[in-house]
# Entry
Amino acid sequence: MASKTTNPFTFLQQVRAETGKVTWPTRRETMISTVMVLVFAIIAMLFFFAADQVMAFGVELILGIGR
# Structure
């Protein structure tokens, strides 16, 4: 594969032109997405905490070790 070299100035112009085509999210969309991520992270945290506690209880009950 032959590589085509581009002038750094031309490259920066192309990058700027491409970023101008991007549809950026609004502040509201960003805030909603952030809240959704935080809520799902908390849900996952609670699930894994509960699963860990149940497994620890089971190991303690079966093997008599732990805690």
